[in-house]
Amino acid sequence: MGWFGSKDWNVVAIIFERPDLYRVNGNRGSGGNATTMRDAAKNHPRTIFWGVFDQKGGFLEGGPAAGANSISTTVLQKLVREVASNPSVREILAVLEAGKESKVSKPLVWTGYPAKGESK
Predict the structure, then answer these.
(1) How confident is the model at residue 118 (pLDDT cuts 50, 70, 90)?
(2) How confident is the model at residue 119 (pLDDT cuts 50, 70, 90)?
(3) 23 phi and psi angles, rounded to 5 deg
(4) What per-residue confidence (pLDDT) applies to 37?
(5) By 3-state DSSP, what share of the chain in percent is helix, strand and coil, each rounded to 5?
(6) pLDDT in tens, 87-98
(7) 3-class SS of residue 85
(8) Which of 111, 112, 22 shows the shortest CA–CA distance to 70?
(9) Residue 106, C-beta contacts closer than 8 angstroms, at least 6 positions apart
(10) What residues contact residue 104 under an 8 Å CB cut-off, 6+ apart?
């Protein structure tokens, strides 16, 4: 939050691509635009997890979304525990915080993907 309570958020969504690949999408926005971006991330049908971060990388709010139905409960629990400290997420946040880009996307590098052949 800024001086007068305006929002300056980084919104991150973990998007399901396939069982062994998720994508990290990050957007920076302020004011009403930040709220719109948060709601879009929450409501995207393939969003596994969404999160809102401040410009210092602090987690403000977030949670599982509709795309979480594409993965097992065990994998989801591990992702929720690790998302804020995941190197891919931290890299996205660093770019957004620096103001270099307002939108960034990259594959999620993570050791928690289910083993090949493991079902939901």
Answers:
(1) confident
(2) low
(3) -120, 140
(4) 97
(5) 35, 30, 30
(6) 999 999 999 999
(7) helix
(8) 22
(9) 23, 24, 88, 91, 92
(10) 25, 26, 27, 92, 95, 96
Q: Of the candidates 21, 27, 16, which has an alpha carbon nearest to the alpha carbon of residue 92?
A: 27
Task: Please enumerate in sequence order all residues whose Cβ is within 8 A of that of 111, keeping only pairs 6 or more positions apart, or say none.
Answer: none
Neighbour tally for 114: CB within 10 Å: 15
User: How far is it, in rounded angstroms, from Cα 60 to Cα 27?
Assistant: 15
Q: What pTM was computed for the model?
A: 0.91
Residue type, 6: S
Residue with tokens 């991330």: 41
Identify the residue whose tokens are 């998302």. 83
- Side-by-side strand order, sheet with 59-64: 59-64, 47-53, 8-18, 21-30, 103-107
* Domain-wise residue ranges, the chain: 8-107
Judged by DSSP in three states, 95 sits in helix
Mean pLDDT for all residues in the chain: 93
pLDDT by residue (tens digit) across 67-79? Answer: 999 999 999 999 9
